Amino acid sequence: MFNSTLSGLKELELARIVQESLLPKGKLEIGQYRFYGFSTMQCQVGGDYFDFKVRDNNCVEVILGDVSGHGLPAALVVAMAKSAFMLLSGLESLLPSDVLTKISQAFLKILNKLKMMTCFLARIDLSRHKLYCSNAGQNAPMLLDRSKEVLEIKIKAFPLGTRQKTNYQNEEVSFPEGGWFVLYSDGVVEALSPSGEMYGYERLKDSIKANCGKSPTLTVEKILANLKAFTLEVPWADDVTVFVIQREEF
Prior knowledge:
The protein has a single domain, classed as Phosphatase 2c, domain 1 (4-Layer Sandwich). It is globular, with a radius of gyration of 18 Å. With 250 residues, the chain is α+β, with helices and mostly antiparallel strands. Strands 1-2-11-10-7-8 form a 6-stranded antiparallel β-sheet. Strands 3-4-5-6-9 form a 5-stranded antiparallel β-sheet. 35% of the residues lie in helices and 27% in strands.
């Protein structure tokens, strides 16, 4: 039994190493834009996923998703999602909604509704400063402008892998100079204080207003520190991911 347990632990550790390799390392800087994200898992392997892909000097694709459940099954679905994202996001003929539709169809065929994934996908045109977005049940990202006004990009749709017929929509949003775009998983807004109060969207919005301003790396660190100050000794019950994109002012 001891050897079996040890073998299982080694397999989980290997799975953790593999999953960490699926997430981007460090930050990305291209033109006026700066990208940085951080994900922390509440067990050795989890279900949160974020990524970015430079298609050319004028276009970057970004994604943030959350697979239902935790552990090895969720991590395997994350690996599937990354493979599909890397394959499909480089195809110029596909809009973000088309990419989500194809991933959803693959999940439905392979997973047969045993697992689902919420997912937000955006294509950033770096020359026109436009976001082309689509969403599959993921929390609405927040876009902060220089005046500290926050726009929540709300696009309602079902998660990936849940419906035969999908109707994912595309939305075009201007990325203002000096603006900040914040993506996050539900583990952020659903984290609890010692009294059982949820962190929620308004606290996150206030944290974004207060902490966006220097670099995406520092902004992510401050948002997570603010979350930790709220939850104190209460462990985060879910994986937590924050992904920040900045358009610098010239």
